[in-house]
Amino acid sequence: MRALTALTFLFSLHAALSSQPLGEAYWNKIVDRADSVVISRFGAVFFKDHIFVPDSPLDYIVIGEDTYPWEERDTITRLPESCYFEYDIGFDSVNASRMNIAFSITPEGELIEDGDLRGFISSSGPEQFHTDLDGFIALAKKNGVKCGRSTAFRDLRWVPLDTVAQIHIAGEGRYELVLGRVRGTRTEKVANSIRTYRLVDSIVFDPFSGAVLRKEERYETMSWATGASGL
């Protein structure tokens, strides 16, 4: 009886422990491993100066067929199969892309190369911007697009390879830096609404090689009023 009682106690203890949340220390280790994945591609200095945590990341945890928002991690008692993370990349926290680096890792930190993977150029070594934002503004001017420092930055986006070359390879692609000068506005009626655009003369760079990819006229939506009766 005494042995049976001890065994029952051990089973009860195991059940109690397994029902406890994994704890913040456990999740912090996974975050550190995710940061290490990014550092392995961009280097520690670039990570410190040009990689940012998004204001509203869509990070989540995968357990079996279920997903849980990262904010619910303090309630999770089961070991995850993988975790998904997002990061911003840019010249500073203002002139940055939004969640263009994204990937999943196992709890041990192994990168999962699937459809979620984006934002990594190569695995051959740390990447660096060709120049700083002021340098790119100077290059834009040399190429006929004059833009002021405060409004030059229009976008920094990750473009998957299947968009560039119509070939789908998970995680493959390039960054495009868009600088521009606002030339005016345009208003048009769409169904029962009035949409106002900002017209921007822009130039598109590869921010890592410095190459000019193209010049283009951009239409940036400023407002969209519904229920309009006419222009």
Structure characterization notes:
With 231 residues, this protein is an alpha+beta fold. The protein has 2 domains: 21-128, no CATH class; 129-159 and 171-231, no CATH class. The chain is built from 5 helices and 10 strands. The chain has helices at residues 2-18, 24-42, 44-50, 133-142, 161-165; strands spanning 51-52, 60-63, 66-69, 82-89, 101-105, 111-112, 153-160, 173-190, 193-205, 212-226. The strands form 2 sheets. Strands 1, 2, 3, 4, 5 and 6 form a 6-stranded antiparallel sheet that branches. It has a 4-stranded antiparallel sheet with strand order 7-8-9-10. The radius of gyration is 24 Å and the shape is globular. It starts with a helix and ends in a 5-residue tail after the last strand.
List segments where confidence is low: pLDDT < 50 over at least 5 consecutive residues.
6-17
Count of distinct structural domains: 2
Give the CA-CA distance, first to last residue. 88 Å
Order of helices and strands: HHHEEEEEEHEHEEE
Structural class: alpha+beta
How much of the residues is beta strand, in percent? 25-35%
Question: What quaternary form is this?
Answer: single chain
Overall pLDDT? 85
- Cα shape: globular
Residue share in helix: 25-40%
What is the strand tally? Answer: 10
Mind telling me the C-alpha Rg? 24 Å
Largest sheet: 6 strands, antiparallel
Number of helical stretches of at least 4 residues? 5
